[in-house]
């Protein structure tokens, strides 16, 4: 795993998200009660969770067919069990936001 700078501080507004490509992976970074990073691609049919996924509390809703994931754990919150998006560590440093991908 490698720490990669993805954004400047302030690039991701509170309550919103952005998608970044890091090490060939699409990663969604959420600014909601701190910064959180997950695989950005929904496990249903490859919908992009950021920036269009609706965020409510700890939950992001996929914009395509409305699956719900916990942005802090990556767990799917709907009826299917055992589906989880990979979670990545985030570090907010003086010069920007870094993801360990
Ligand atoms: S692609 Fe996300 S719910 Fe279908």
Structural description of this entry:
By secondary structure, the chain is mostly beta strands. The chain has one domain: Rieske [2Fe-2S] iron-sulphur domain (Rieske Iron-sulfur Protein, 3-layer Sandwich). It has strands at residues 3-7, 16-22, 25-31, 35-39, 54-56, 59-61, 68-70, 87-93, 96-100. It has a 6-stranded antiparallel sheet, with no helix packed on it. Strand 6 and strand 7 (68-70) form a beta hairpin. It is globular, with a radius of gyration of 13 Å. The mean pLDDT is 97.
Termini, distance in Å? 5 Å
What is the CATH architecture assignment? 3-layer Sandwich
Tell me the fraction of residues in β-strands, as a range: 35-45%
Query: Runs with pLDDT <50, length 5+?
Result: none
- H/E element string? EEEEEEEEE
Question: If strands are numbered along the chain, what order do they take across the biggest sheet?
Answer: 1-9-8-4-3-2
Any idea what the shape is? globular
Compute the number of structural domains: 1
Largest sheet: 6 strands, antiparallel
Helical residues, percent: under 10%
Which structural class should the secondary elements be placed in?
A: mainly beta
């Amino acid at each position: 795993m490698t720490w990669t700078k993805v954004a400047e501080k302030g690039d991701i507004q509170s309550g919103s998200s952005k998608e970044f490509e890091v090490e060939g992976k699409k990663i969604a970074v959420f600014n909601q009660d701190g910064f959180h990073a997950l695989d950005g691609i929904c496990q249903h049919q490859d919908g992009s969770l950021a920036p269009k996924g609706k965020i409510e509390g700890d939950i992001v809703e996929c914009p395509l067919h409305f699956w719900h994931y916990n942005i802090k754990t990556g767990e799917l919150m709907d009826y299917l069990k055992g589906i989880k998006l990979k979670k990545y560590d985030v570090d907010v440093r003086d010069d920007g936001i870094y993801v360990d991908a």
